[in-house]
Amino acid sequence: MLDWSSLVVFVPVVLILVATPGPNTLYIIARSLDGGYSGGLASCLGILLATLTHTAVASVGLTAVLSASASIFKTIKYGGAIYLIWIGLKTIASKQRPETDDKVLNKKFGTIVYQGFLINLLNPKTALFFLAFLPQFVNTSFGGVTSQIILLGVVLAILGTTSDSLYALAAGRARRWLQKNLFLMRSLRYVSASVYLGLGLFAALKPLGQ
C-alpha cells in the first residue's frame, strides 16, 4: 500500500523529470523522424518494457550489485554506447528510402521495440536512478516495501510513456510535413543517424562519476 502523501509529491516530481528531454526522448524523436509515429510508438513501448524491468530489478535490490561493481557498470555502460553507435552507422549505411508509417508498423515494429528496450536497459545510470530515487518515496511504516517500489515504478512508467508518446506524435507529424520536401526527407536519415551517434559517443565519453 502506498503512502498517498508521498504520492502527491512523487507525481509532480516525475512529471517534471519525464517531460525534460533526455537520451530516451532524443532516441524517440529520431525514431519518429526516421519511421513516423509508428516507429516512435514502437520505441516508446521498448523503453516502457525496460523501465518496468528496471523497476522489478530495483525492487529486489539487484541494482545494488551494479552500484558496487565498477567493472559491471563499465561493461554495461560501454555496451549501450556501442549499440547506439552501431545503430547510427547502420542508419547512415542504409540505402533504402524512408518508409511509410504502415511499412514500419508491419515490418520493423518488433525490431524497434527490441532496440528501444536494449537502449534503456543498457543504461546503468537508469538502473542506479531507480535504486536511488524510488526508495525516497517509500514509507516503511506501511510495510510491503517491495510492492511500494513496484507501484511507484509503474506510476513512473505510465507517466514517462505518456510523455514519450507525445514527443513521438509531434516528431511524427513533423515528418509528414517534411515528406513534402524530398531533399529534406532524404536528409532525415542523416539527422537520425547523428542523434544515435551523438548519444553513443556522449555515453562512451562521459566520465563514470557523472
List descriptors.
210 residues, mainly alpha, globular
Task: Kindly summarize this structure in a few lines.
The chain has about 210 residues and is mostly helical. It is built from eight helices and no strands.
Report what the structure shows.
The protein is an all-alpha fold. 82% of the residues lie in helices and 0% in strands. It has helices spanning 4-19, 23-59, 63-68, 70-93, 101-121, 124-133, 145-178, 182-205. Helix 2 (23-59) crosses helix 8 (182-205). It starts with a helix and ends in a 5-residue tail after the last helix.
Write the layout of secondary structure elements.
Blueprint: H1 4-19, H2 23-59, H3 63-68, H4 70-93, H5 101-121, H6 124-133, H7 145-178, H8 182-205
Helix pairs in contact: 1-7, 2-5, 2-6, 2-7, 2-8, 4-8
Structural class: mainly alpha
Beta content:
under 5%
Mean pLDDT: 77
Helix content: over 70%
Query: What is the 3D form?
Result: globular
Which regions have little confidence, pLDDT < 50, spanning 5+ residues? Answer: none
Cα gyration radius (Å): 18 Å
Annotation, overall tally of beta strands: 0
Strand count, sense and closure of the main sheet?
Answer: none
Distance between the ends: 34 Å
Separate helix tally: 8
State the order of secondary-structure elements, H for helix, E for strand: HHHHHHHH
